[in-house]
Amino acid sequence: MIIQLKEDISEKQKDLLKAEVNQIGYKITEVKTQLGDYLVGIGKKEFDIRKIGKKEGIKDIHIVSDEYKLVSKKWKVNPTSIDLGDGVCIKDGDMAIIAGPCSIESEQQIRKIIQHLKENGIKMMRGGVFKPRSSPYAFRGLGIEGLQLWYNLAKEEGIKIVTEVMQVSQIEEMYPYTDIYQVGARNTQNFNLLDELGKVDKAVMIKRGISGTIEELLQSAEYVFSGGNEKLILCERGIRTYERASRNTLDLNAVPILKSKSHLPVIVDPSHGIGIREFVPQMALAGVMAGADGIIYETHEIPEKAYSDGQQTLDFEQSALLADWIRKTFALRKKFELL
Ligand code: PEP
Ligand code: MN
Question: Where do the DAHP synthetase I/KDSA domain residues begin and end (predicted)?
Fold first, then answer.
């Protein structure tokens, strides 16, 4: 169960309530976020919801049968919006476009990409400065100095930054320069990292684990929410299956399923999903039609020269076309939704 508490609930009322819920046989965890104060009750016993609901200090009470609770749509029917300021928002009923290189490489590269994004009305830029690479000898990112450089250039142009955090110690140093912390597929179940991201008041985008289930992705988001941060975005980026013809298997089934199970926005990453440049656009558009709230893809002035993931990176011409088609496809989807 989830009990939403009133802002003015007294400590005494809260203690009484906790005791009462404990008595029924539910284990209570108190969660305080930027937006509210909740008691999450874990238990199976049937009880009279009206009896608890009438107690003082309660705003609302909900029965949530899912394993995950706070990220479930069973209690919060209205979709969650992520407002990044300056009119940039990720939300249901809208189409966010996040584009940029796999890795941040140099000042010149950042300037060129920002220019490209501006020309195409794209307000969010992705890029890694801490790169999880399968080989320890591959380029591993420019680190915090690269992020500072990027931030200074992006800020001037009102571009928001989406970048991967790999470990707890990076959260604080990245904070002033980051709009959305990306949790990569290799870290989806790094529960210490998720716990710590619960303590920040900036948005967190969690990618689906390499072999992760939909339920596991939702549980990862539950970690961050229950740690105190409601600003969450889910990202389908493909899973590892027996298929070797593509880098991953982009599981677009996950999009409507996630949207039906959770109130959180869902983004699709076709670049890592298929891993083949020429097929990224169609998978992006398929993601739009599947119901995604946004698309994140990789672009670079000269993809062949990119320090990482060049094989799945679009050049600027392809990127400009894709951004246009994402918007057109989204407009088409809106028409379908009216049917
Ligand atoms: C990335 O976004 O460049 C990345 C490493 O993604 P993932 O964690 O999905 O592999
Ligand atoms: Mn990449």
Answer: 90-330
Atom of ligand 1 nearest to the CA of 237: 9
Residue 15, classed as helix, strand or coil, is helix
Q: How far is the CA of 119 from the centre of ligand 1 (A)?
A: 25
Tokens of 4: 């939403």
For residue range 218-228, list pLDDT tens digits in order. Answer: 999 999 999 99
SS3 328: helix
In DSSP terms, 42 is beta-bridged to 27
Helix (H) / strand (E) element for 68: namely none
Token output for 176: 């002033």
The best mutation among 103, 166, 207 to test binding of ligand 1, ranked by most ligand atoms within 8 Å of the C-beta, falls on: 207
Which sign does the torsion angle of CA 173, 221, 186, 101 carry?
negative
Atom of ligand 1 nearest to the CA of 272: 9
- Residue pair 310/280 in contact by the 8 Å Cβ criterion: no
Which ligand ends up closest to the CA of 306?
Answer: 2
Residue (of 116, 144, 91, 118) closest to 313 by Cα position: 116
Q: How many helices (H) does the chain have, and how many strands (E)? A: 11, 14
The 8-class DSSP code of residue 200 comes to S
Q: Which helix (H) or strand (E) holds 66?
A: none
Q: What are 255-286's pLDDT values in tens digits?
A: 999 999 999 999 999 999 999 999 999 999 99
Q: Whose CA is nearest to atom 10 of ligand 1?
A: 185
Atom 4, ligand 1: residue with shortest CA distance:
184
